[in-house]
Amino acid sequence: xxxxxxxxxxxxxxxxxxxxxxxxxxxxxxxxxxxxxxxxxxxxxxxxxxxxxxxxxxxxxxxxxxxxxxxxxxxxxxxxxxxxxxxxxxxxxxxxxxxxxxxxxxxxxxxxxxxxxxxxxxxxxxxxxxxxxxxxxxxxxxxxxxxxxxxxxxxxxxxxxxxxxxxxxxxxxxxxxxxxxxxxxxxxxxxxxxxxxxxxxxxxxxxxxxxxxxxxxxxxxxxxxxxxxxxxxxxxxxxxxxxxxxxxxxxxxxxxxxxxxxxxxxxxxxxxxxxxxxxxxxxxxxxxxxxxxxxxxxxxxxxxxxxxxxxxxxxxxxxxxxxxxxxxxxxxxxxxxxxxxxxxxxxxxxxxx
Length: 353
Hints:
Elements (H helix, E strand, L loop, with lengths): L3 H31 L13 E2 L5 E2 L17 E12 L3 E11 L3 E13 L1 H13 L11 H6 L11 E15 L12 E11 L3 H7 L4 E13 L8 E10 L18 E11 L4 E8 L17 H8 L4 E11 L2 E9 L10 E10 L1
Antiparallel strand pairs: 1-2, 3-4, 3-14, 4-5, 5-6, 6-7, 7-8, 8-9, 9-10, 10-11, 11-12, 12-13, 13-14
């Protein structure tokens, strides 16, 4: 009995010592676990959200990874954007996850409303289908000429909807810490588009409803750039066959028709919270509506519907704090579905957490 108590005391002392020795490791693990979902990067480095759901500007993805997570953290964002044009309007919303400042996974839902322009397009289709001798707009002649069901092709308040699932991977570079190097931050991205247009519309346009798009993005930031202000430049190479970014399907009369196209963005931080800039994005030119489709000669209409223009914008983005960014822009999308001069207001909000 006399030897038992000292032995127990020794065991207790050893247990307490081991616990004290292990406590820093346990605390470190607990702290690391608590910071796994974090916002350790600098304000503004998560950019805003493009209408396709990727981190970037309003119309272009950039090489940055969404959220503010460091290479040891996971960040996430959610966004909503509204584009109000002369004849159309679009709503886009979605979310993204940035994994360790290396991989970005994103989802976006786009709804493009034709509004009253759907009736105008019906009239043009009817006019071409009847050789300029339409018996009366709004009749069943449009559907008869095109072999479609219903009293009209589009009608009022028609919506084109699509889902975009994206993945972006940062290959190398860091926009903040590579100031002494010439190389930019470079990422590659892939988007899967699923358009919900009816099959008869897709057949008439001679497009497919699902497709993949690819891009390479290079983004460089100079902390002492133009006029001593932080300056950003981004250059993209897009490989895509998306008509109006997929809202009018993919490919055309001559097949899938992938094109290699440029895109570019610039931005100047007027202070650490406000950035002013502009963007440019080329669009593929695919021939839609084959002359042999339906009745009548569709070449005139096909050329008009096929006409696309490069997308451009001038934007201002405000980062009051990491959890929120607000963007306003003047956008010029050119000709969309025969309607020219499609310009207007772009508003977007991104939340980060």
